[in-house]
Amino acid sequence: MKSINIPKNNRPGRRTALTYLITAMVFTSCATASCTAASHDGWKPLFDGKTLNGWKSVGGKAPYTVEDGAIVGTMTAGTPNSFLITEQEYGDFILELDVKLEGETTNSGIQTRSHLDKEANNGQGRVYGRQVEIDPTERSWTGGIYDEARRGWLYPLDLNEGAKRAYKKGEFNHIRIEAIGNETKTWVNDIPVAYVIDTIDATGFIGLQVHGINDEKLAGKKVYFKNVRIQTDNLKPRDFPLGIYTVNLVPNALSAYEKQNEYTLLFNGNTPEGWVGAYKDAFPEKGWEIKDGTITVLPSDGGESTNGGDIVTIDQYGAFDLSFEFKLTEGGNSGVKYFVTLSENNTGSAIGLEYQILDDEQHPDAKMGRDGNRTLASLYDLITAQKTSRTRRKIGEWNKGRVVVQPDNTVTHYLNGEKVLQYKRGSDAYKKLVSESKYKKWNDFGLAETGHILLQDHGDRVSFRNIKIKRL
Fold first, then answer.
1. Which domain holds residue 24?
2. What is the pTM of this model?
């Protein structure tokens, strides 16, 4: 440090001189942008702009360097996903940084509260944990939340389509991530994007990804990270506007934000309150089990409503946003029906529009109907769900279904956050589909103004939880 000469006749007392000296030291050592950032509203730099001190490279072999005040990762053929991770782990934090990605056919990401399996990838290690996506492709899911090397997509941007326009290709994009308690929220260029409430990973490292590439043309493309800063104390969350869908993985619970958005639980996790048997005045005495926060159809003979029978909500709904989690057993078949009127007095399962729940690989119904319109997440016997194998979870794992019926009768099915089909009740196209289906014998099928929500007993063991609804 440069010495400071104080004129003799202006020298303060001993204590004041010490204060002056400390102030001078702080001023001198803070003559950099990084230190200035650290002293402003609790922000601390995670990157000093010159070196990779405090970071280490794991996973793949893509190189990370420092260029013009930015961390630069270079895409490299023949290596798996590469990560530059913090040596320190973090719990609650607010993280901000600027990211630019070259090319439009790859992606990158920012790991939060993540971990390293040191033995994976032949000893190179594999990073796993929640990742905030950087996605310049036509899919446009930047700011969405992916669970790297573990559960897959938690918050695809089909759940917040308006936010797909936030990312600017070929430019630096400002990313804000709040990880406070069990909530993770994201912003891209100050536009709110994703909101996930999770049950795992209270702490972990932060990481910057260079994605593995299969296209040799991408070799040498770069991803840039700069202005990387973090707050860890006295955190003040930014307001999230109402109306953005929340992925809440806490079973049978509503967050304060969901309550503000007027969601209600259809299943409280403990009792059949709000449900009765179809064509009955009470909940079935057999065939259904409520245990460990789930409501489960017990297996019988694989037939429709031959044991406990279907169950329906006591209340009826018109326009709504319905979410539910379901878990299939091998070869399982069930369904979630809506606009169920119970006016048909038919035998077997009650009649209604059906979100199909099925083991596509093992159940024969997947090969019946037309063009796959009886497969998982399809509008049963009417419209085939457009999904990939990635969209589905394995048998025995929880899947998340969602049905949104807008006031204009536009209906959308989602599977694990991805939009898999959309149609409009009452349209000419809809009526044509009905006329070619098993439902053609019922007049005005699926066109009631309101109806019950139904969980189907198809004789196979299928479990449900986290059933919630919002009237639109």
1. 1-31
2. 0.90
